[in-house]
User: Fold this.
Amino acid sequence: MKKQGSAGDGERRRRGRPRGATEQGLETRQHLYATSLGLIAARGFDETTLRDIAKEAGVSVGLLYRYFPSKRAIVLALYDELSARYAERAAKLAPGPWRERFLLALGASLEVLGPHREPLKALVPVLVGGQEEGLFAPGTAFSRLRVQGAFSEAVLGATDAPRGSVAPALGRVLYVVHLAVVLWWLLDKSPRQRATDGLIRLLERLLLPASLALRVPGAGAFVRTADALFRQGLLGEQESAAEEEEAS
Assistant:
């Protein structure tokens, strides 16, 4: 015999869907996400509470918790969104020398980050020094590795990619250079961030002699040392691992 109560079963199935899988759930999450970033941009990360966000969004704190149980979850969602968009853009880099591909990757990063400049400015202390939410925290490695991998690929896929372990080391060093430019851009108080444009033009002028210098015997050791310092100082890797990479 066919079981009755199919309407009730369908209702239970609808209730059992993962939160956010429905169109309404996605819209709710996006509303809460946008409200959160707006308040963080206006008040700062530390000064914004989940209760403030719920009030501004016109929802209960309980509903907010279902989507974003902490402010950290909001930051991680931002990292995830921006790094995914950037990785998609960076995958389409045109062929060419590594210095040109690096500049294209850098420009793509600033374009992706551009619409979120205000909340990112408010998050600068967190980005740099957050033990759990910072760019170099273990819990945010998923985002960092996406972006870092794009800069490594910009070198590895270049027409003049250095040989051996120098290429991935150079990619990681360029990732750090990119972070320095992004931080400058976030702190840039000049009209329309013209000082950042000037910095990028200066960097572009320096990259050609840098690419030529890299062909000099022994120059690769300098790049590997810079990479080792980055991994020790910012990622907390053991010195022995960095020395092993340098010797390879």
Observations:
- The domain at 76-247 is CATH 1.10.357.10 (Tetracycline Repressor; domain 2).
- The longest helix spans residues 166-187.
- Residues 115 and 199 are 20 Å apart (CA to CA).
